[in-house]
């Protein structure tokens, strides 16, 4: 360890004085290497393969850097504990490596010696060749000097004669030029007709120069003024040619015009003139289009002189029949002008860079670019004003919805064109759209509400046979949402069409760009005629032997298609024989319960959503109207089928549902039964309410045979829930459309109205459950029972059999109703739950009517109730039995000791004061004082409930 440190310190102190391999000359290295190699070769010859292995064994560090310190490297590799044998072995290895490298270097030097000698010989030959060339050049110069001195005198004579000849030629050229100038005017006119503006300008300028040159001739004196007039005429025609590019841009034509202006040195003036021409083109084109339609419609009634009218006044004479085609033609013409302006900018962006070869050209280019960029906003503002004034001049409230949507789409496309043209938000046109849309939609929505009232008043509440997997995307009105739903994977894979799959492959990069799609041909305002879409909404059913059968095996599960063996007879049956009953049952259960009114509401909602997607500024107003459709449907279903639910069912309606119904009644309904008629003379008249609907007389809800219209009630209620389900489906889409500030309204609508739709089931079905079983008759029978028996009875009372018979008959009626209208499992369970709850409350009420009761009587009550539960399990499939504890707890309370009865009464607020008083009075083990105390507690609690 100490020796290693000393060696390292010695190396460090002497490192600067030690000669590195870099400081050694090449000659020394080769000499030493050759000597070492020679010495080693003489001592120990080395096999070439062994020599190569030795060289390959050299570490990579020796090749990395010329300043690499090999000695320090080897010392750093020494271990802490030095080993003499190892050091000797390392020294021998390094010496062998040095010998191999030196030998290899020596061999390389000897191999390249011949090439060096050859190259040196070539250099010597080149030097001799250059000396010979110099001698040849020197000789040539001497000969040229002699030739120049020998032929100078003769050459001067020739040149003198040539000069005279040239002077005569010049005179002849001047005479020809004068003759040409006399014929220039005719040629200039021909060139202007050929649109050779540059050639005409060039010729005119050349003539002016020539006239200036030959002005000393009398025949040329009058030609100069005439040429100046001709040049001014050329500029006027050039300005006319420039104006033609505003409505139809032609690349070659515009190039000729710009080149001509560049020749005149008036590039900046040309741009200023061009902007003025575009403004004039917009005003003149719009006026011409409107004038044409006005004169066309007023031709039969005697046309006035409309050409002298102002544009605003002229727009007011457009009729509703010609409004849409006139708007389309106006937008098409404005598009052509903006497209020409866009092409003009593109032309300058491409050609000005190619001609930018000086400071002056750079200045002109910047001037032109700035003018054209600023001109975008001016051009679009003029276009926007023309369209805005035209749209505002006509009342659109009388248009059909589809035509109005088409108008919105046209104007919306114009706004998108403006945004792409100059990044303008088009506030003026947006405000116009909003104003017209609100005016239209206010009238349209009121008509739709009254139309919905008419549908509801004429609705028979029959099930509409739609597909088993029907949803809103199957309707034509919602087809525009399929791309949105497909992008969020909301469409099942088996319902995806080829078009849906193709749309899913598109990316956001394929955004619509009008100036790239329609720059060369076509027009974004051309009406795109689409093939009439066919709805696949209604189920394909065939009626055979009075039964509904599917015309396709696709509606039947695969396991039902297999052959089966009857377990009783052992006979084999095929799917075809079983298909009739099984397919009917499956389709019957899977078909959604909706009505024609439900489909109509969904179609109206789809149209409303189309308007929202096209015109987002009124999205909230349309959404608010859309919610009114559901509000009115919800309120009408409740008012038709559960107006007096509390009288048939003691279970109170959900308080939140009552609050929702009250809000709808206050905000949406009016007591008037007259349908809405627009009154334009009274703008302050209330048009945002609708009359309350009245149920159709064909709907019978009082017939016990039909279970008090249970089928109609189920169709109405479940169609309402289906509508609510579709609104849940639309919630993400609506959240994307409405402003953030209005999302609270949407959230409240879903939480306070849509979510409350399911609560309508309880009061609607509660009416039927309360009327289907004669609970009053059961109470009357229970009042005849003696509950003060002293012995425990082994036979239940007859009222149990009557109640069970009512339940059994009710089940048969439910099965008959289910054949007509498929009853969902949740509806059946809810119906039986209400029936059982009513029965349990009847039990408690009947037990409470007992004036006297003994221990045997309480046992009889328990026996009757257990008999009812046992037989009930064979009638219904509802598990667990609801409110069973309500009856059992009341019966068992009779056996509670005096100390626990007070606590039990305070804990069970679900019983009425009458039932609790009856319990206290019937308990015979209570003292008079305790009975009075409990009576006072019950009366105080009852007073608190009333307050």
UniProtKB/TrEMBL annotation:
Tell me the Gene Ontology biological-process terms attached to this UniProt entry.
Answer: endocytic recycling; protein transport; retrograde transport, endosome to Golgi
Q: Where is the Vacuolar protein sorting-associated protein 54 N-terminal domain?
A: 55-347
Record's keyword annotation contains Transport:
yes
Q: Which InterPro entries match?
A: Syndetin_C, VPS50, VPS54_N
Protein keywords: Coiled coil, Protein transport, Transport
Tree of life domain: Eukaryota
Keyword Ribosomal protein attached: no
Q: GO CC annotation: what is one?
A: EARP complex
Q: Which GO terms describe its molecular function?
A: SNARE binding
Q: Name one Pfam family in it.
A: Syndetin_C
Name all Syndetin C-terminal domain ranges. 707-939
The protein, known as? Syndetin-like
Q: Which organism is it from?
A: Biomphalaria glabrata (Bloodfluke planorb)
Lineage per the UniProt record: Eukaryota, Metazoa, Spiralia, Lophotrochozoa, Mollusca
